[in-house]
């Protein structure tokens, strides 16, 4: 059973990862299982760059301790966020720091709606992006990027999701991703798709040793 060291402290993301991987023959560990280390800078201009930076950083800092448990353990990191076309791609890679690092999501929603109101006729096309990187002993061994397309809702709606879920309206559901169940969300959402791609890769590839 391969061990996946998931480099996150975000409980909501970890819950989604555990849900997706529940029926897979893998063992999961997270940053909470190891001594705390400083978070890395994320200077990348793309989600892919930042996912790679985080995976390499945590593999270097904590990989040796993880591999005491399993020599073939893999370090998994992801970078994700909301891209709004009418805002030139913002919040983008700054999604977790948009407005300010300690801003509430309600404050971030308000800023997005304030900016969109300047051009009320502009299309509200938007998407969630998740870039995922897997590292083994300092080498990137797998990468994938997945998206879910939608539009910015007329107003925030729903309490089932987290992050920007209440403002991404998903037309096939006629609802935001916070209006639907976790199962319905993960069936179509960016992180669920990226994790399923990872699971397929694990099934098809030879395990590092």
Walk me through the structure.
With 209 residues, the chain is α/β, with parallel strands linked by helices. Helix content is 33%, strand content 24%. It has a single domain, classed as Maf protein (Alpha-Beta Complex). The protein has a seven-stranded mixed β-sheet with strand order 2-1-3-4-5-6-7. Helix 1 links the parallel strand 1 and strand 2.
State the share of residues found in helices, binned by percent. Answer: 25-40%
Helix segment tally? 5
Number of spatially distinct domains: 1
Biggest β-sheet: count, sense, barrel? 7 strands, mixed
C-alpha termini separation? 13 Å
CATH architecture: Alpha-Beta Complex
The H-and-E topology, N to C, reads as: EHEHEHEEEEHH
Strand content: 15-25%
Radius of gyration from CA coordinates: 17 Å
Given the helix and strand composition, which structural class is it?
alpha/beta
| Main CATH class | Alpha Beta
């Amino acid at each position: 059973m391969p061990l996946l060291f998931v480099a996150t402290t975000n409980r909501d993301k970890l819950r989604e990862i555990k849900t997706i991987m529940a029926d897979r023959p893998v063992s999961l560990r997270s940053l909470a299982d190891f001594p705390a280390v400083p978070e890395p800078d994320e200077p990348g201009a793309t989600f892919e760059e930042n996912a790679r930076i985080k995976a390499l950083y945590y593999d270097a800092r904590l990989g040796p301790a993880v591999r005491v448990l399993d020599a073939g353990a893999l370090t998994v990191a992801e970078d994700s966020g909301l891209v709004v076309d009418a805002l030139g791609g913002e919040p983008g890679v700054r999604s977790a720091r948009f407005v300010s690092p300690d801003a509430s999501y309600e404050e971030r929603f308000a800023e997005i709606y304030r900016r969109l109101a300047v051009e009320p006729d502009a299309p509200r096309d938007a998407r969630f992006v998740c870039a995922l990187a897997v590292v083994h002993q300092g080498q990137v061994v797998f990468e994938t990027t997945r998206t879910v397309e939608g539009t910015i809702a007329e107003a925030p709606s729903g309490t089932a999701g987290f992050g920007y879920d209440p403002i991404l309206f998903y037309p096939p559901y006629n609802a935001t991703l916070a209006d639907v169940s976790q199962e319905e969300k993960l069936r179509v959402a960016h992180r669920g798709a990226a994790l399923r791609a990872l699971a397929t890769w694990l099934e098809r590839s030879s395990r590092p040793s």
